[in-house]
Q: What sequence folds into this?
């Protein structure tokens, strides 16, 4: 597996012309309830990118994995110890300069594998600038939960997905994250209003500071998390990511794997 963080610069130089795309994982360091570590979004983005890379290899698509950017925009979690946040301005600027660096070395196709919803505004802002200043054949963000929303009907028993919930817990289990299921909670019973915070049903959700609405930090029913559900989610999202990459490869741009 090609992983830029484990390669020398000559190795990277030699592989760039043969790449179909570079996968850039973005995450966050923030509370995920009593049962998931604070690195969960970072871990998910990184491991999901690895799974996309593996699936790409089976499809004859040559993908490399970039280092993962671990810290994101998590201001709404800051009342919970261990959470770390960048401002949207700083996050967007850092991402933009990373993309500029890749582009200057001849990388023209990047799929951003984002593990944290709070990063989205900063990502979109960075992409506008990057597209104006760089030469790209593919520069797109991939939000895995959007695939679950479109194609994952029936996977989640609760019909709810938001934060440290049934879906996120299930995916963590499938990706072999550290999960303390004996500490999982159902915050939907704690506060019925939290059912309205559901990305499976809402296009846009305004999130108040988490400590104002949940004592555990969970928005969802994490007790329903199961590895088998996570594997179904993983299959859907990796397949969707490969479709996005394939859709941006022409016969002339496709390289030998």
A:
């Amino acid at each position: 597996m090609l992983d830029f963080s484990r390669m020398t610069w000559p190795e990277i130089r030699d592989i760039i012309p043969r790449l179909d795309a570079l996968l850039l994982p973005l995450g966050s360091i923030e509370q995920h309830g009593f049962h998931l570590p604070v690195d969960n979004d970072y871990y998910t983005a990184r491991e999901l990118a690895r799974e996309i890379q593996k699936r790409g290899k089976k499809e004859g698509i040559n993908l490399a994995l970039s280092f993962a950017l671990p810290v994101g925009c998590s201001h709404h979690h800051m009342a919970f110890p261990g959470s770390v946040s960048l401002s949207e301005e700083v996050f967007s600027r850092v991402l933009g300069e990373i993309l500029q660096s890749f582009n200057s070395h001849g990388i023209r196709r990047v799929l951003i594998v984002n593990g944290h919803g709070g990063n989205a505004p900063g990502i979109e802002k960075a992409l506008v600038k990057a597209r104006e200043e760089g030469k790209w054949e593919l520069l797109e963000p991939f939000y895995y939960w959007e695939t679950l929303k479109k194609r994952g009907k029936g996977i989640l028993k609760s019909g709810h997905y938001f934060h440290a919930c049934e879906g996120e817990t299930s995916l963590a289990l499938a990706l072999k994250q550290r999960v303390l299921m004996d500490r999982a909670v159902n915050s939907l019973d704690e506060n019925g209003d939290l059912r309205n915070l559901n990305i499976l049903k809402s296009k846009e959700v305004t999130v108040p500071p988490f400590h104002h609405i949940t004592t555990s930090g969970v928005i969802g029913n994490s007790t329903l998390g199961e590895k088998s559900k996570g594997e179904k989610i993983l299959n859907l999202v990796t397949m969707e990511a490969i479709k996005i990459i394939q859709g941006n490869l022409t016969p002339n741009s496709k390289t030998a794997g």
Remarks:
- The first strand starts at residue 2 and ends at 3.
